[in-house]
Amino acid sequence: MNTVTDIAAATEADSAPFFIRGKLVEGAEQIHRSRDLGVDFATPKIDLDSLVHPRSELPPLLNTPVSEIIDFLHEAGQRLADPNNPHIQTTIDRMAKVSLQPRKSIEFQLKHAIGYLNPKVLRELVEQNFPNPKALDEWVPHTDHTGRRSFIRAYAPRLIHVLPGNAPTQGIQSIAQSALVKSVSLFKMASADPFSTVAFLRTMAEVDPNHPVVRSMSAIYWRGGEESVERVLYRPQYFDKLVAWGGGDAINNVMKYVGPGFQLVSFDPKTSISMVGREAFASDEAMVEAATLNAGDVAMGGQEPCVSSRFTFIEASPEQADRYCEVLAEQIRIDRMGEGTPRPLDMELKEQIDVLRMMDDEYAVFGKTDGRGVAIRSEEPVDFHPLRKTSNVVCVPDLMEAMKYVNVATQTVGVYPFDRMASLRDHLASGGAQRVVRLGEAGPSAIGNPHDAMYPLHRFVHWMANEDGVEHR
Fold first, then answer.
1. Half-sphere exposure of 352 toward its Cβ, with a 13 Å CA cutoff?
2. Which stretch is the leader sequence (predicted)?
3. For residue 436, how many other CB atoms are within 10 A of its CB?
4. Residue 444 falls inside a structural domain
5. CATH at 164
6. 140-143 and 148-155: which strand pairing?
7. Is 199 buried (19+), middle (13-18) or exposed (0-12) by CB count in 10 A?
8. Domain limits at 280?
């Protein structure tokens, strides 16, 4: 910074410090602008050398038992849960300025994310991801049917995580998962949340500044696609895998760096849907029940997370679907989480919905385009991405007809009535969907279950075999 304008911007911008291998790094040499709301924030200048853990040095967590890692994460979770934790409170204040989500939603998500550090959750996560969790702590012996001996280890990887900006919970989950696989990790934060991951790591450092978990983690921000940073870091000399969350542009950007020795574990952009059977119209009570459950899946996290429902396929006539949409819109607009005043709809999205409202021969629109909730009835899915508590309810003669809209980008499918899941799940899996649940339960998944059609921790580690010849009998 060497101009009056730069100095003024740095003075007004919130500070987004870095956390590098156990140390807080502060500074305001770089001014960035958040993607969603165009708010400035300031970061230190990046020292690329400090971000690389030499391969000649063993990972700090390698010989720390998983049980001890879980104990440390639990203790850190208690510190994070303290309502007087200054790092979390500051993060909430600053995130509220750059995030599309209302402040109350951010508070709610951060509060509940800390539950991820519960020891029972962490142990179950490990047990579900690894048939033999001992492989994380030691070289596990194995002899095949020919008598050939081996030792197998889930070796500590070196990971770069490209974090999403729409889920402040993901930072804490990624830290915990990285710790459990004993990785050396660099977290690239998003412009919609360049604060929370550093706040989590700062709190952990206050528990024990020299703990191997703390010394294994770094979190910084750079603008996605900045080649001066990515051409240097995205190399197999320094890291094994790139764990990428985000939209299509973010994933496409990192794809060009993937090659031999440098793998991609991608959590691609996904869309979740709902399926409501004709049984919802057996009675008024059943319809209200289905619409209420549906609304919970739509409104979750302000409809920012991939798991939030965007399209509802319903076995109904237009007249039935209109009754359903009227109740659905009312239920979406109920502020169950105490989010308060929502962000207004993007102008382009608002205009698209308002145009549909005038096309009453093909569409019916219920609710208002004020960010609190809208339901759109149609015969075909709308050609835009429903967002900010917008649900597109599509009439189908049979739920099997909706299968043509299911693909590998379909993450979660909520079904009503619940007993129809069994008859739909094979077809959903064949279409590419990754998860089917009861309508209204799209939220937190069962602990340790596959995510995006894989067991993430199993993918993260570097599987190593030490073969030791044939055992003589």
1. 15
2. none
3. 17
4. no
5. 3.40.605.10
6. antiparallel
7. buried
8. 271-438
> What integer pLDDT is reported at residue 88 of this predicted model?
87
Residue 71 pairs with which residues in a beta bridge? none
Q: Given the structure tokens 């049980």, which residue do they identify?
A: 67
Beta bridge partners of 414: 274, 437
Tell me the C-alpha distance between 381 and 395, whole Å: 9
Q: Are residues 216 and 140 in the same domain?
A: yes
Question: H or E element: which one contains 322?
Answer: helix 318-332
| pLDDT greater than 60 at residue 9 | no
CA of residue 87 relative to chain centroid, distance: 21
Structure-token pair, residue 53: 């853990």
Q: How far apart are CA 344 and CA 100, in angstroms?
A: 9
The CA-atom distances, in angstroms, between 390 and each of 51, 215, 345 are: 41, 43, 10
Spatial CA neighbour of 291 closest among 171, 146, 439: 439
- What angle (nearest 5°) sits at the alpha carbon of residue 366, between those of residues 365 and 367? 125
Residues 232 and 114 in one domain: yes
In a domain, 447, yes or no: no
* For residue 417, cis peptide bond before it (omega within 30 degrees of 0): yes
For residue 337, name the pLDDT band (cuts at 50, 70, 90): low
Q: Tokens representing 350?
A: 């608002």
β-strands 158-162, 184-189 pairing: parallel
**Does the pLDDT value for residue 5 go beyond 60?**
no
Overall domain count for the chain: 2
- Domain harbouring 398, CATH code: 3.40.309.10
Q: What per-residue confidence (pLDDT) applies to 247?
A: 64
Is 471 a member of any domain? no
Tell whether 261 and 399 lie within a shared domain. no
Distance CA 94, CA 39 (A): 10
pTM as predicted: 0.86
Kindly write down the DSSP assignment for every residue of 283-301, as one continuous string: SHHHHHHHHHHHHHHHHGG
Residue 37 in contact with residue 168, Cβ under 8 Å? no
What distance in Å separates the CA atoms of residue 302 and residue 336, rounded to the nearest whole number?
11
Is 125 contained in some domain?
yes
Instruction: Clarify whether residues 196 and 50 are in a common domain.
Output: yes
> How would you label 11-21 residue by residue, b for 16+ Cβ within 10 Å and e otherwise?
eebbbbbbbbb
Tokens of 399: 């739920």
In this structure, what token pair is assigned to residue 414?
């909520």
When computed from its CA atoms, the radius of gyration of the chain, rounded to whole angstroms, is: 24
Task: Say which residue, 166 or 264, is predicted with more confidence.
Answer: 264
Angstrom distance (rounded) from CA 434 to CA 447: 15
Pick the closest to residue 398 from 435, 426, 430, 423 (CA basis). 423
